[in-house]
Structures are given as C-alpha cells and as structure tokens.
Specification:
The chain has about 350 residues and is an alpha/beta fold. It has helices at about 25-30, 45-60, 80-90, 105-115, 130-135, 175-190, 195-210, 210-230, 245-255, 265-280, 285-300, 310-320, 350-360; strands spanning about 1-5, 15-20, 35-40, 65-70, 100-105, 125-130, 140-145, 150-155, 160-165, 330-335, 340-345.
Length: about 350
C-alpha cells in the first residue's frame, strides 16, 4: 500500500492506494467514531463490493445504511440526489454519520454533494472503484450534479476525510471504462509532468493489460500530481484550472450527445485532441506534438475524432462552461507538451478551424 496526503492544513487527508484495501477495517476505523455509516453505491457496484464493505464495517462494530442508485451519468441529477436525502432522513442519519461513496465518479460526486448539504455538512469518505475516480474525481473535493444545460454546474467544494483506492476493484472494470480512466492519467503528463508522459508512452500496453504494478504506479503518480495542485489551489482560482485540459470541449461532447452516451473520459480524450489542435494553430506546439498526443490516446483505445454535434452546439455548450469569464471561453491549452496554460483569447476563426478539423478527423 502507498499513502499520499492532500495537504490542506487541518482538513488534510490521506489517499491509500493498494490491493485488498476494502478488507482493511483499520484504515476506516478512525473515521467512524459513532459506529454508524451510510454507504452510497449503484446497481453495478453493489453486487460486486457492497457486501465486502458492509462486512469490513461490521467487523469493527459499525452498522450501515445502504443507498443503491441507478448507474450512469444520465442519473447524475437533482432527482437522483433526492434518493440519497430520502434514505438519510428515513434512517435518521445524524451529523456524525459519515457518507461513504462506493463507486465511480458519478457516485463520488453525488455522495460528496449530499454530504456537503445534508444537515449542512456531514463527514464523507471516498472509496473509488473505477480508474477515472481513483486518479481524478475522488481527490480534491469537487462534488456536484449535472443540469440539462450544463455538466457539473451545480455543486460544492467539499473535501473527503479519506480516499481508499483498492486496485482490486479495477479487475471488474469493463475495458472501455479502464480506457476512459486513462484519459485523465495522460492529462497529468500533458499539463505538468513530462517524465510521466514519457513513462506512459513506454508502458501504455502494460496498463491496457492491467499489469498490477504499472497500474498502481500510474494511480499513485496521478494522485500525487492532483494532490499537489489541490493543496496549492483548492478552489480553482489559478493552477487547478489546468486539470481541465480537454474538458471544455469534452463536456460539450457529453452534453451535446446526451449524458451517458459518451463516457467522461472519452469526451476528455477527443477534447484533448481538440485542445492540442488549437494549441498548434496558435503556434505553440508542432504538428508532430499533436500527432504524438493523438497516437498515445489511440494506443489507449480512446476516441480521437469528436462527434459532429454542429459548430453552433459546441459553442453554445462551451459558453456554459464553468471557466467562462467576462463572456469569454477560457481554454486549457498546451504551451508545450508537459506545460499547460489557461487562455481566453483564442481567435474565433482558429477555434472554428479546430472544430471543423477535429470533428471530421
């Protein structure tokens, strides 16, 4: 097991990464003082891991209430959020009752938002079961739900007390979900960690084959990058925005295609190619750099051509992005491979060229 820390003063918390952690009550015990917890999971994860977690909690005398949500990005809504509140109220959960998120990014985001708002804030533990959640969404305290007009537009910054990333849960992950997580892993290399990007280029085949040591290294390196950024800029006033490489385009793809039709990581992959293309049109990176990035995403079995939802739709959804400031769409772009910047002055004609080039391949 490896343990990293997200340094936020008295709100600092550990990220434990390793095999068999779901069966380690000692890692949870300190965070469960009142011997009661509520577990939020979904219909896919519950049959696989809920009994194991309940058993682990029971071994230290903790009783649990379980809330099983429908699975999918299309259920990341206010209506589904109410299912969590309903269960907490019906079971008279108190301010000292921690919410434990057992699942991927959707479960984590919704559980975190419920924890931030139920009784104005209850403790929160993340047990991410997908690669994407283990390397990105479970760390850093971004929580929320989607709105028909925009992804993640309603939410709160609310940090967990603990992140428990059991790599064994990745064994049950479908190939497309594993690939989707790789989009966020590659992102860290592109925005700030060139040596990691080079390592990924050499080891992507091992990761695809689910080599345990390679996966654990990639998760830990990704979490280390994320932890450093979050410690420096918890509420995204500066450097943390760089974590959104590919996300402005990617969220537009997810929204435009209908939530759940493209996985988040698939949207981010195609969106990152678009960001690289725009960076090249601005004269910052070479055509060879763009080809290098595209090749790595292709090797990770991720889409590199964006769906054609229409230029107008792309601009409309990107105009609803959280990074819009003063009416300008602010993109995360690459000054060079391994160094990203936030940029709000992309000429409309270059953006148009990128949208046309990347949609048609």
């Amino acid at each position: 097991m490896q343990t990293l820390t997200v340094g936020l003063g008295e709100r600092s918390y550990p990220i434990h990464i390793g095999s068999g952690l779901l069966g380690r009550p000692d890692l949870l015990q300190a965070h469960l003082p009142r011997k009661r917890a509520a577990i939020v999971t979904n219909t896919t994860v519950a049959p696989l891991y809920l009994a194991k977690l309940e058993q682990t909690l029971a071994s230290i005398g903790v009783s649990s209430v379980s809330v099983i949500l429908p699975d999918g990005e299309e259920y990341k809504t206010a209506e589904t959020l109410n299912l969590i509140y309903d269960a907490l109220l019906q079971n008279r959960c108190e301010r000292s009752t921690p919410l434990i998120a057992l699942g991927g990014g959707v479960v984590g985001d919704m559980t975190g938002y419920a924890a931030a708002t139920y009784l104005r804030g209850v403790p929160f533990i993340q047990i991410p079961t997908t690669l994407l959640a283990q390397v990105d969404s479970s760390v850093g305290g971004k929580t929320g739900i989607n709105h028909p007009l925009g992804k993640n537009m309603i939410g709160a910054f609310y940090q967990p007390q603990l992140v428990l990333a059991d790599t064994d849960t990745l064994n049950s992950l479908p190939d497309n979900e594993l690939a989707a997580g790789m989009a966020e892993v590659i992102k860290y290399g592109l925005i700030r960690d060139l040596p990691f990007l080079e390592w990924l280029e050499q080891n992507i085949d091992k990761l695809q084959a689910r080599d345990t040591a390679a996966l654990q290294y990639a998760i830990a390196r990704s979490c280390q990058n994320k932890a450093e950024i979050v410690a420096a800029d918890e509420r995204e006033s500066g450097e943390r925005a760089l974590l959104n490489l590919g996300h402005t385009f990617g969220h537009a793809i997810e929204s435009g295609m209908g939530y759940g039709n493209w996985l988040h990581g698939e949207g981010v992959a195609a969106g990152t190619i678009m960001a690289a293309d725009l960076s090249h049109r601005l004269g910052w990176i070479s055509a060879q750099d763009v080809a290098r990035i595209r090749q790595l995403f292709e090797r990770a079995n991720l889409p590199v051509i964006a769906p054609d939802i229409g230029t107008g739709k792309y601009l409309e959804f990107m105009g609803l992005d959280k990074k819009v400031e003063g009416g300008k769409i602010r993109f995360v772009l690459l000054k060079e491979v391994g160094r990203a910047v936030v940029y709000g002055d992309a000429p409309p004609e270059l953006l148009q060229q990128t949208l046309e080039a990347c949609v048609h391949g």
